Amino acid sequence: MEIDQIFKNNKRWISGQLELDENYFENLSKKQDPEFLYIGCSDSRVPAESLMGVSAGEVFVHRNIANQVPNTDLNVMSVINYAVEHLKVNHIIVCGHYYCGGVKAAMQASDLGILNPWLRNIRDVYRMHNLELDKISAEEEKYKRLVELNVQEQCVNVLKVEVVQRACINRGLQVHAWVFDIHTGSLIDLKIDFKKILEEIMEIYSLK
Questions:
Q1: Residue from 12, 21, 33, 41 carrying the catalytic annotation
Q2: 95 assigned to active site
Q3: What is the pLDDT of residue 207?
Q4: How many other C-beta atoms lie within 10 A of the C-beta of residue 76?
Q5: Is 161 exposed, middle or buried (0-12, 13-18, 19+ CB in 10 A)?
Q6: 147 contacts 177 by C-beta, under 8 angstroms
Q7: Of residues 95, 100, 155, 168, which has the active-site annotation?
Q8: Which residue in 183, 175, 131, 136 sits closest to 156, CA to CA?
Q9: What is the radius of gyration, based on Cα positions, of the chain?
Q10: In this predicted structure, what is the pLDDT of residue 202?
Q11: Is 193 known to be catalytic?
């Protein structure tokens, strides 16, 4: 696709939105009031708003390779802080996806340069769950299970954040672990018990 085509697409999109609502952009410019913070993968096949069926202004989005939430990344930490403290989102979603290139790359014994420290976060997830993963003989199923475990561990990382702990306790913020199945288009809720996780980790990570 040529760059010029994108601007033509933009004009068609504007016209379409104004046909539906002549005040669409005026209202959109006033404020954002999202219910959700979505932390997902940068993969171009996983568009957050489309797979959730929501419109602009309804979800605050952060994406990076393999939907990581490392406490050393000021980008994701700033996004979480802003979403929870200022936008007052009621739900934080960590959404991974099957056939994730980042997860697969983390499982390869190869030097990937600048990606090495980032992918090490995923390798750490494998290390924590290696007894379960090493019992899975089929490589595809092992990758898919690691995708799920990675999402769950990133939710744990979310719950270690001070503002998240306070919001969960004081105003009922919820944390969710999802996986997007690219083959079917389905969203899968891993149904983590975030309240139980919060209780367990606050014995060590309580920042009240």
A1: 41
A2: no
A3: 63
A4: 22
A5: buried
A6: no
A7: 100
A8: 175
A9: 19
A10: 83
A11: no
Q: Which of 43, 155, 168, 176 is catalytic?
A: 43
Residue identified by tokens 């490589």 is 139
Give every CB contact of residue 190 below 8 A, 6+ residues apart in sequence.
148, 151, 152, 177, 178, 179
Active site residue 155: no
Q: Beta strand 174-181 with 186-189: parallel, antiparallel or unpaired?
A: antiparallel
Residues composing the chain? 208
Q: Tell me the domain boundaries of the chain.
A: 31-42+57-205
Given the residues 4, 33, 86, 97, the one annotated as active site: 97
Q: What is the pLDDT, as a whole number, of residue 208?
A: 60
Residue 195 neighbours by CB distance under 10 Å: 13
The one catalytic residue in 4, 12, 21, 45 is: 45
In the CATH hierarchy, which fold is given to the domain comprising 31-42+57-205? Beta-carbonic Anhydrase; Chain A (3.40.1050)
Pair 89, 37: CB distance under 8 Å:
yes
Tens place of pLDDT for every residue, the chain, 208 residues?
899 999 999 999 999 999 999 899 988 888 888 999 999 999 998 889 999 999 888 999 999 999 999 999 999 999 999 999 999 999 999 999 999 999 988 888 788 888 899 999 999 999 999 999 999 999 999 999 999 999 999 999 999 999 999 999 999 999 999 999 999 999 999 999 999 999 998 888 766 6
